[in-house]
Amino acid sequence: MDSKHFISRNSNSPIAFNTKWEAPSNIALIKYWGKTEPQIPKNPSLSFTLSSSVTTTAVTFTPNPGATFSFEFAFEGVLKPDFHPKLNVFFNRIKPYIPWIDSYSLKIESRNSFPHSSGIASSASAMAALSLCLLDMEKTLFPELDPTYFNQKASFLARLGSGSAARSIEGPLCFWGKNSCRKDSSDLYSTPFGPSLNPIFSTYQDSILLVDKGSKQVSSTQGHQLMHNHPFAEKRFIQANQNLSKLVPLMEAGDLEGFIEIVESEALSLHAMMMTSLPYFILMQPQTLSIIQKVWDFRKTTQTPLCFTLDAGANVHLLYPKHTREKVAAFIEAELADFCQNRQYLIDAVGSGAKKV
Ligand code: DP6
């Protein structure tokens, strides 16, 4: 299937419409790091869809016949013209697929469930929520759209806003990027893991330790660019494919030991790519490393299957099965909270995907 599949018909009779969607954040187990135009990943990735960390976006579509497309954007009740350049890039990329949008003015209102500037990337949940609002409008114009196409196209549009956003439509686990584990996988949109997932992973917990709430010195978009001409890039893309092929059967079997080894290796490999880019950079903080060491000690002494992963920042995601959550909660309070800014951390879990609200 190619991108043409997602080009919609135009509509001659614009209608007033409003809709509101809630889309979750996600945390990658196999990391996407490196891409080519237009937002095509250099390797496949796999992520847990989260449950409580969400963006809620409402869009009001007002018919604007004859005029050109326009929008206004408010975040947490305040108009934010500084978000316009990023949104303009997004709308310019997606317009060929939703030509009907030229007949509308949009009022976009967005808010996050997680604290502002918590260091949690909100672009995935934000782009997914906005894309779902757009697809909802498309379905209203063209009611024949089937649910599979709806989710695929929402993921396709979200990807054009932010790569990882492709994986924020469905749950509990999503692939993005052509891979040898799933015949239906695609570089253009995300696909769910499917029923072969061992049930232990559909209730997995993710506690996000907020080590550094400031904005990053190097954005993900810049980091992806640095994978061009990176001395280890080609090996890294092979490693990600191999790790995915190993991880999928482990997650079907419920093999926690194997899961931990691959997930932690992926997190450290991602940060190794950052440290060996030119210019090189480090997003981890001393507290990140202290937490990792504590997690390893705790796992060894208590035999609890707790592991960590990292996104493109200093915060640490702790992943663990639901039945261990009391033990892990006590461990976080006693030994890890002191490493977090203002002792702040979020408790989240694997979720079932975006929903209309
Ligand atoms: C480290 O999706 O934020 O979180 O496509 O440029 O918007 P853009 O990048 P983004 O990159 C995410 C990188 C990551 C790994 C992952 O989520 O797979």
Provide keyphrases for this structure.
single chain; binds ligand DP6; eight-stranded mixed sheet; 2 domains; alpha+beta
Commentary on this structure:
With 357 residues, this protein is an alpha+beta fold. The protein folds into two domains: 3-197, 2-Layer Sandwich (Ribosomal Protein S5, domain 2); 201-349, 2-Layer Sandwich (Alpha-Beta Plaits). The chain has eight helices and 14 strands. Strands 1, 4, 5, 6, 7, 8, 9 and 14 form an eight-stranded mixed sheet that branches. The radius of gyration is 20 Å and the shape is globular. It starts with 16 loop residues before the first strand and ends with a strand. Ligand DP6 binds next to helix 4.
Task: Please specify the SSE layout and strand pairing.
Blueprint: E1 17-30, E2 35-36, E3 40-41, E4 45-63, E5 70-75, E6 78-79, H1 84-94, E7 104-112, H2 123-141, H3 147-161, E8 173-176, E9 190-192, E10 205-209, H4 220-225, H5 233-253, H6 256-275, H7 286-302, E11 307-310, E12 316-320, H8 325-336, E13 345-349, E14 355-356
Parallel strand pairs: 5-7
Antiparallel strand pairs: 1-4, 1-14, 2-3, 4-7, 4-8, 5-6, 8-9, 10-12, 10-13, 11-12
